[in-house]
């Protein structure tokens, strides 16, 4: 009897997950850019927060979350630390946090993705689930931004154009 070896290919590797996430971040950045400055900070529908506040939430989760995972630190979530007053300030911080994510994400080993981590001292899930939460939360809030832009009569960026046109 002969044994047949099979190779299982991985669905996604860490670099592909990061690329996927950064595609979403690129698109969310374009949504921020699409807002007129006043409406970015003031416009809301149905009592939801203005998009600037939603973007600050994403800024307060992504970079700090990945850094906390790598450094194995469980600090409390703090959305009050960064209070931008202009779109330019918000976009600058967005770009800085994108680099923080790139820097720290590259330091997460394949094995580490399966380990439990208590994100912000509140939720204990495997690291990969925390990363997926970061992405899911961003997609959710970006959807709110799309609704706001459409209500303002502004065409949002196409959702499938997550990467810069080369």
Automatic annotation (TrEMBL):
<dbReference type="Pfam" id="PF05163">
    <property type="entry name" value="DinB"/>
</dbReference>
<dbReference type="InterPro" id="IPR007837">
    <property type="entry name" value="DinB"/>
</dbReference>
<protein>
    <submittedName>
        <fullName>DinB family protein</fullName>
    </submittedName>
</protein>
<comment type="similarity">
    <text>Belongs to the DinB family.</text>
</comment>
<dbReference type="InterPro" id="IPR034660">
    <property type="entry name" value="DinB/YfiT-like"/>
</dbReference>
<keyword id="KW-0479">Metal-binding</keyword>
<feature type="binding site">
    <location>
        <position position="141"/>
    </location>
    <ligand>
        <name>a divalent metal cation</name>
    </ligand>
</feature>
<dbReference type="GO" id="GO:0046872">
    <property type="term" value="F:metal ion binding"/>
</dbReference>
């Amino acid at each position: 009897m002969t044994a047949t070896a099979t190779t299982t290919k991985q669905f996604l590797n860490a670099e592909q997950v990061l690329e996927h996430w950064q595609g979403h971040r690129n698109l969310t950045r374009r949504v921020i850019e699409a807002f007129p400055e006043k409406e970015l900070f003031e416009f809301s529908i149905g009592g939801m927060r203005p998009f600037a506040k939603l973007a600050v939430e994403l800024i307060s989760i992504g970079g700090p979350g990945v850094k906390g995972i790598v450094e194995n630190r469980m600090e409390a979530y703090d959305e009050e630390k960064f209070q931008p007053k202009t779109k330019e300030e918000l976009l600058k911080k967005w770009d800085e946090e994108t680099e923080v994510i790139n820097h720290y994400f590259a330091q997460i080993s394949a094995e580490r993705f399966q380990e439990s981590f208590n994100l912000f001292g509140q939720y204990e899930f495997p690291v990969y689930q925390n990363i997926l939460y970061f992405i899911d939360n961003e997609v959710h809030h970006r959807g709110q931004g799309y609704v706001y832009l459409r209500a303002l009569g502004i065409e949002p960026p196409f959702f499938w154009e997550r990467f810069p046109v080369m």
